[in-house]
Amino acid sequence: MQEKINWKLFWDIAAKHRRFILTSHVRPDGDSLGSQLAMAETLEKMGKETLLLNQDPVPPSLAFLDPEKKIVPLAEISESGKAFVESADCHIVLDLSSWSQMGAVAGIYRESGCEKVIIDHHKSARDLPGTYFLDPDAEATGRLVFDALEVSGVPMSEKVAAELWTAIATDTGWFRFSSVTDRTYEIAAELTRRGVSPAALYKQINEQESFGRIRLIGRALANAEKFMDGKIYLTSLRNADFEAAGALRSESEDIVNELLKIKGSEQAIIMVEQKSGAFKISFRSRCAVDCSRLAAQFSGGGHHQAAGASCDLPYEQTKEALVAAAVAAAEAAEKDAR
Questions:
Q1: Which of 61, 101, 230, 250 is the 20 to 30 A CA-CA neighbour of 9?
Q2: pTM: predicted TM-score of the whole model, two decimal places
Q3: Which domain, by its residues, includes 112?
Q4: How many structural domains is the chain composed of?
Q5: What order do you get walking across the sheet with 19-23 strand by strand?
Q6: How does 110-122 read in b/e, with b if 16+ C-beta sit within 10 Å?
Q7: Rounded average pLDDT over 257-279
Q8: Do residue 101 and residue 166 come from a single domain?
């Protein structure tokens, strides 16, 4: 199978450098973290030095991926970490290609004179400067990192295999999204041969919920509203909901997917209030409506079936704008189908 990306070029770039910063997006998920860790371990086996630097910490549900706590939140960077940033000669970003998803690390990326590389599978605007290794048809950035590592010649450890399995499995909804292809299963089989236990990882990822998250899901479902006769569902989580549930902000991840379990639902949207009062917005679709286009209206981006954005308007204005955009997109899709 011919690859779309010239991974030899990537490794030619890597060969020129010694100290690498690796960054993933704000509110990191299984794909971003698994990809980041797998790439870092491979570079280290090549004798390179790495600093894994994100805006946000690893969420508790994924802490098992990083038992050594190699991933550093920007707010907790040490003096030695700051010195590393100053001396780094290559900055690799994984699972994002837009300034808005990099968060506070964007300042470091923007001001650095080191070589910049982007590995991503989103349709989002390519507004980061650097050399791109991009495939919007790939089911996960972890899939791209797997392909890159296969070209590297570095033996893949069981740990790296588990990181990549986590990346691919979580970004495909445990292999149930339409982005999954026969190649996805071939890679899963290869990672299993390299020591991954799918059952153990499933339990680690999906059966370790906190009581706070379960209560938060309940509040999100209680707040849900339906539009267009149940084709569109929108819910919200306000600051008071987090306090009442005793839940962390990171525990709101993917709650929006619960709304797509409702019979007849085609679009799902969640507004998650931030401490600043702004809203993080997640879009999901299982119809012709393209979530990436919806998110773009709110300076965000993503995929056809899943995307994200943010908005700093008051609650009612944000909700009104989201519903109007979702209804318009649904009506346009229905018109195109006729």
A1: 101
A2: 0.82
A3: 7-206
A4: 2
A5: 71-73, 49-54, 19-23, 90-94, 115-120, 131-134
A6: eebebbbbbbbbb
A7: 96
A8: yes
